[in-house]
Amino acid sequence: MDELNAPYHAHIYYDAATRAQALALRQRLLDAKDSGAIPELFFVGELGEHAVGPHPLPEYEIHYSEAMLPAVIALLEASGLRALVHPLTDDDVADHTTLAHWIGEPLPLKLETLDPPGVNQGVARFGKSAF
């Protein structure tokens, strides 16, 4: 995969008070995917009910290419929700820390749940599924 098509993820966080916002953003993302406005948005996950993996709040994830980063960030910033945007490399810890970009207030992640370098299972899930 060339650099502009490199895999990216975003984790969109919500709680009971912001669940409706998260659903509305999910629909905007699906509409952008279906209309071709964000053509390389490959996956839009379902809202989870509980915290999963390293994430301390319920979240859903989206998968897209690096070329779509400006459009995705614009939608995330406009939503008012908290999100973690990161590339998908073979180093899960770096992806969620030093290579990550937070939109809104950062959350403390449970880094011990992440894959060790070279064994990033997210690569295999890219464009297909969430946790």
Automatic annotation (TrEMBL):
Q: Which Gene3D superfamilies match?
A: DOPA-like domains
GO MF term list: dioxygenase activity
* Secretion signal, residue range per the UniProt entry: none
Keyword annotations for this protein?
A: Dioxygenase, Oxidoreductase
Q: What is this protein called?
A: Aromatic ring-opening dioxygenase
Supply the source organism for this entry: Massilia rubra
